[in-house]
Amino acid sequence: MRLELKGLTKKFGSFTADDDIDLIVEPGQIHAILGENGAGKSTLMNMLYGILEPTSGEILIDDEPVRFRSPGDAIDSGIGMVHQHFKLVGPFSVADNVQLGREHVKGGVLDRKAARKAVLDVSERYGLKLDPDAVCDDLPVGVQQRIEIVKALSGETELLILDEPTAVLTPAEVEELLDIMRNLAKSGMSIIFISHKLKEVKAVADTITVIRRGKVVAEVSPEDSETELASAMVGRAVSLQVDKTPAKPGDVALDIEDLVVYDDRGLAAVDGLNLQVRAGEIVGLAGVEGNGQTELARAVLGTVKADSGKIAMNGTEVTRWSPDRRIDGGLGYIPEDRGRDGLVADFTVAENMVLNQYRNHPYSKNGVVDHAAVVKRAEESIEDFDIRTQGPDESVSSLSGGNQQKVIIAREMSRPRRVMVAAQPTRGVDVGAIEFIHKRLIEERDAETGILLISAELDEILSLSDRVAVIYNGQIVGEVSPDTPREEIGRLMVGHRTADDKTAGEPAGKASGEDAGETADDQADTTGSAGTDDSDPAQGGDREQ
C-alpha cells in the first residue's frame, strides 16, 4: 500500500493540532515519525485511522483519495493501528478483544472456538505469545500491548500504524517487535512507526519525518546521530547525558527492613528485602522486571500491605500508616502506570494536580475545594513544567502520554517532600521531556530529598543513581557503584550475589532454573534497558511485569 497525506490539517476551535501535513509512505517502507509530546503525531494518526475527521487536506491510498468516517472504514481499506493508549475492554478475554469489530459468528452466535484459533494463529505467526482465554484486566501492561498488536494484525492489514508501541514493553519484547516490523516490511507491508526512543528508530526505520508543534520541520536519515535527531525533535540542542555533582548523603530518609509482601497467589513478591535511601542521594533499583519492584513501590506508598518487616521515613516507622498519612508525612510517589495509578482520566489537568492535596490549605477552605486556588496552582505548574495543554480546565485524558507524565511529576514535585519513589519516571516520554525530568530529579536530590529510582532502563539507572541496588526474586542481592561494569550488574540481575557474599557465584534467593552466566549479557544488553523476566505472564509465568 502506498499512502500519501496532502495538506492534512486538524483544528480544535482556535487550536491547530496539525498544520498542513504532507507525508508519503511507500510499500514495504518503515516510516518513522518523531516529535515531542504534544507535537501532533497521535492526532495525525487518528485522522488516518478514521477516529478524527480532518479539518482540511486529503488522504490518498494507492493514489486514490479516500475518506474515513470511522475506524471501520480504515480497517476495510487495509489499515491497522496499535494505539498509544490501549483500546481494550478490561473484563473481556483476549480472544473477545481481538475479534471486536470482526466477530466470528456461527449460527447467529459468537464462535468462540474460531476466535481462539484466530488469536493463536496470529500470535504464533508473529511470535507474540498470548493466552486467548486470559482476561485483559488480569494481564500486565506488556501483555496488553501484545493483544493490541495481534488485534491490528488480525485483518487483511497492508499498512500498520504503531503509535508508541514500545513504551510499556520490556527490552526482549522490544527486540521481538522490531524483528516483526522488519519481517512485515520485507513482505510488502507499509509501517508508520511513532516512537520517542531514538535507538529503536535508528535501528528499524527506512526514513524519518520530524513533526514539531503540528508542522513537518524535517526529513532526516536514520544514519544521523541521536543528538541530531533529538535536536530536530525539540528545536534546540539536547543533552543526552545527565549532568550532576557528587551526592552529599545525609541521614537515612527511607529505611526498609526485612520487608515481605505476598501477591494475590500467596507468593512472596518481596521476600525479606532490606534497603536504605539517605537524604540527598538517588538509589537506583536495577533488576529484571517482575522481581518485586512493583510490589515494593506500592508497599512504600501503603497501597499494598506489608505482611512482615518495617518501613520507616526519617526515623519514624510508617508500616501501618495509610497512604494519605505517608503523603502528608513527606512521601512523593511517581507510579509506573500513570493511567491506572497516577491520574483520573475524566478529571481536568487542574484537578489532577491536587489529587493528593485537595483537602489541604490553600486548596480547601472549611471543607470546600477552592477552585480558584486549584486553577492558580495548575497554571503555575503548566508553565514551570512546560505541560502542553490548552489550559488547566482541559481533561487530562486529552493530553499526550508524555504531558500526562509531566502532570504527575509537577504534582509530586510541587509540594513538601522528604522521600520520593520514582517508578519508571520517563516511560513513554520524548527526549526533551526525559532531559527535563532527569534535571528535576537531580534538583530534588540536591534539595536533600532521598530518592528511590525504579526503572527498566539500565542507562537511566546508571546515569542518575549515586548507588545501585540490584533486586532479584524480591531480595536485594547486591549494592554497587553506577560505574560497575554492565556484565557484573547483569550477573546480579539473574541472581548471583556480589563477591563479598559467602554465596558468591551461586544464584541468590529462590532457584530460577536458568544459567545466569549464559543470560547475564541478555539482561544488561546494549539496548540500555534492564531486561525482562524469562517467565511469561501470558503463559502462566509466576511474576507480574
From TrEMBL:
- GO molecular function terms here? ATP binding
What keywords are annotated for this sequence in UniProt? Answer: ATP-binding, Nucleotide-binding
Residues in ABC transporter domain copies? 3-238, 254-498
Task: For the region Disordered, give the residue spans.
Answer: 496-545
Which Pfam families does the annotation name?
ABC_tran
Q: Does the keyword Hydrolase apply?
A: no
Q: What segments bear the compositional bias annotation Acidic residues?
A: 515-524
User: Does the keyword Nucleotide-binding feature in the UniProt annotation?
Assistant: yes
- Name assigned to this protein: ABC transporter ATP-binding protein
